[in-house]
TrEMBL record:
The lineage of its organism: Eukaryota, Amoebozoa, Evosea, Eumycetozoa, Dictyostelia. Residues 56-164 form the Methyltransferase type domain. GO terms for molecular function: methyltransferase activity; S-adenosylmethionine-dependent methyltransferase activity. This is Methyltransferase type 11 domain-containing protein. It holds the Pfam family Methyltransf_11. It comes from the Eukaryota. Transmembrane segments: none annotated.
Length: 289
């Protein structure tokens, strides 16, 4: 089973960053809001918001979650956003208007904000540096989720809270399974030796992994996020676009590919016409040190 190294992940996301931003980021923003809400950053109850002194975001992607967090956090709270991909860092800076200030810097001083490139499995921060941590759709992608969880635990102070999201159960995530479902039906072999992105969807096991990393309390659950896709053509444009899949498509007979695509389009249109969402389940954990 192939598991990507950190270097391979960096290269992959550098190459996929703009495609992801264009097609996929809109589906990740609601989950980012779920995570930062679970950290108490948006809360007006008690002292939850005021007690948040420092926030770390790991795997900011093109910046949707970063922008939300900046909107809700206190300006006095330190906020550092990170990603393994420099291209994602640049997209986040564009999202925040940081490329329009002339100096191309990595900080917004008035927001107590900084952005930097780093590896989720080897964070460049001292122990007990933050009291909030969130990572949206990253834990299932890294080489070692156990290492990432331990690093999150290490950089959090006692009482700190971390929030993670991963792909949920495939049977509840049609947006990620339709392509292969139709391929199987018409005899296109999409079997892969790569580790499945669904490998952490069992919340019982995911919760235990976080407890094993040292967290004292871990809440685990599922939610559903519908895609804004309105028809089958939009779906095929989005989910046949990843670079790895494009390379695979180039190996297919053209007529076979066109049949595959047409059946995908028709299947999605049929689901939508029946009133069913195209979307995915998210599994997530909220962990207290």
């Amino acid at each position: 089973m192939k598991v990507f190294t950190s270097e391979e992940l960096e290269q992959k996301w550098d190459g996929f960053s703009k495609i992801f931003q264009h097609y996929n980021e809109c589906s990740t923003a609601p989950v980012a809001f779920l995570l930062i809400t679970s950290l108490g950053i948006t809360s007006q109850f008690g002292s939850a918001q005021n007690s948040c002194k420092s926030i770390l975001e790991v795997a900011c992607g093109p910046g949707a979650g970063t922008k939300l967090c900046l909107q809700y956090k206190n300006d006095s709270s330190k906020f550092i956003s990170t990603d393994i991909s420099n291209e994602m860092i640049q997209l986040t800076k564009q999202c925040l208007g940081m490329t329009n200030n002339g100096d191309g810097g990595d900080e917004i001083p008035e927001k107590n904000f900084k952005i930097q490139q780093c590896n989720a499995e080897k964070l460049p921060f001292p122990d007990n540096s933050f009291d909030r941590y969130f990572s949206n759709y990253c834990l299932h992608l890294v080489t070692s989720p156990e290492t990432m969880l331990k690093e999150a635990y290490r950089v959090l102070e006692v009482g700190g809270i971390a929030a993670f999201s991963v792909w949920g159960r495939p049977e509840n995530s049609n947006q990620f399974t339709i392509v292969k479902k139709i391929a199987d039906e018409i005899g296109i072999d999409m079997s892969s030796q790569e580790r499945s992105s669904f490998h952490l969807n069992d919340t019982t096991k995911l919760r235990q992994m976080a407890l094993d990393a040292g967290f004292s309390r871990v809440l685990a659950g599922h939610s559903f996020v519908n895609s804004p896709i309105q028809n089958g053509e939009e779906y095929s444009e989005v989910f046949l676009s990843p670079p790895g899949l494009q390379k695979f498509i180039q190996t297919l007979d053209k007529e076979k590919y066109l049949l595959w695509k047409s059946k995908i389009v028709n299947h999605v249109d049929e689901l939508l016409n029946k009133g069913e969402f195209i979307g995915s389940e998210v599994s997530y954990i909220i962990c207290t040190k």
